[in-house]
Amino acid sequence: MSPVASPAPRRLARFTLPSVPGNERAAIARVSESVAGLNLPARRLEKLKTAVAEATMNAIEHGNDNRGDVAVDIEVVLSGAEIVVAITDRGGRGDAGRLDAGGGGEVPDLARKLSGHEQTGGWGLFLIRQMVDGVEVTTNGERRTVRLTMRTQ
């Protein structure tokens, strides 16, 4: 008996955006357009859009320091029954090791943040992980990639 072959991954979109605050809206629009034919349920599509927006904002602000001359690369791939959105910035320095090791996804303590005992940031990766089925952060030199995975079913 031969194994059932799964279809090869198919690129739905690939684009770059300048690292300018507000370009997360362009990322949302392009990703939404690329997955439109997949009939993703509305609630799942909204979650994917939220995760893409947050990951793109993080790439713009933290990875590329809001430098409009440095691009955020975004690729959308359909792999079997999964949509994979890869968002790449130049943040492979500094805190990348913490993110790669799974940090940044802990439950933020709102009371400690409001009282000033913790920095006010740190919600991004936590929020992203609540929205999609999988998150992977990798670093290759100075390039950091956040891969968001959303099952289509």
Overall description:
- With 153 residues, the protein is of the alpha+beta class.
- It has one domain (10-151): Histidine kinase-like ATPase, C-terminal domain (Heat Shock Protein 90, 2-Layer Sandwich), CATH 3.30.565.10.
- It is 34% helix and 27% strand.
- It has a five-stranded antiparallel β-sheet with strand order 1-2-3-5-4.
- Helix 1 (24-35) packs antiparallel against helix 2 (42-63) and helix 2 (42-63) packs antiparallel against helix 5.
- The chain is globular.
- The two termini are 27 Å apart.
Q: Share of helix among residues?
A: 25-40%
Q: DSSP strand (E) fraction?
A: 25-35%
Bulk shape: globular
Low-pLDDT runs of 5+ residues are: 95-104
> How many β-strand stretches?
5
Placed side by side, the strands forming the largest sheet appear as 1-2-3-5-4
Chain oligomer state: single chain
Report the order of strands and helices. Answer: EHHEEHHHEE
Under CATH, the topology is which? Heat Shock Protein 90
The CATH C-level name is Alpha Beta
- The mean pLDDT is 86
- Assigned CATH architecture: 2-Layer Sandwich
The DSSP helix count reads 5
Our Rg estimate from Cα atoms comes to 16 Å
CATH superfamily membership: Histidine kinase-like ATPase, C-terminal domain
Find the structural class using helix and strand composition.
alpha+beta
N-to-C terminal Cα separation, in Å? 27 Å
Q: Please, how many domains?
A: 1
Q: Main sheet, how many strands, which sense, barrel?
A: 5 strands, antiparallel
